[in-house]
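Batch manifest, entry 17 of 40.
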Amino acid sequence: MHMLRWPATGISLVCPFCKSKLNTSDQVLVCGECAVSYLFGDGGVPFMLADLQGQESGETAVLKKDIMKMFTNYNRSLDESGFSRFSTFINWGFASEFNQAPASVNRNSIRLLQECLDGLYLEDKNILEVACGRGGGVRELCRSYGVRSVVGLDLTEANIAFCQLTNRFPNAYFCVGDAERLPIGSSCCDFVLNMEASDLYPSIKSFYDEVFRVLKPGGTFVYADDLPTWKFDNGERYLLELGFELLISRDITGEVLLSSDQVLKNRIAAFGSEGQMDTAIWKTMGVPGTSLYDEMKSGERQYKIMHFRKQPHHNV
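Output type: structure tokens
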């Protein structure tokens, strides 16, 4: 029995626990090794979350459920404000001091993605976006970069439901899954993209391990996040020890802060003011006046774009 693959992609879907092949039976995916079953959600989206199988408990499970709750509320706020169909990105955005035009809903976010992908050749490649949010990155990759396929994975079912409902690209696929237990086969991705999510992961090293595993030898990890400076240092050290080669490291803290200033009015229109918005959402959005914004301004945190290449002689 072959590993289950989406029709237009070489990226394989596997059991997130033992990484074994999955068989299809009565609209359920069953692991051929450990016999764990996985359901399909709305629109046939594979539902591959670890916590549903009772594999996680304690603080880790609580943290992940809090993240899912926060982004479920995020989607609800967009629905209630009428902005849902326009808001396909969840990121800081990128703005240049040379371009001070008013920011449209997604313009700065698309510009940030373009900056992250600058210098990369993506045509006919298979891309995995971990923490794809509301699918803006997946859509832009399909629309503008000539990719063979993109698989978007996210922890929050509400995000993936929106992605699936609004998807118009036959080479875009979505999956509910955990960044620390990727339900993706080893050495099958040309690129892994992760933007503004890793600071929420209870075990960031587990995520790094998984990225290394799923990338092909010579594949590239495109990594963009706002992190405390020490966390960047520790993360880079760990990734190099795994067998990655650092290709670029670019500090764009100033540009994302400028973007946050520009899009504040749009965010208030979409989500309400601080007193009206879910507190957790407000704090993580990095709007002016939050501790996250202030830490970026002071230099305690940085925003970096980094490219890491899995060295060609490494395989899993």
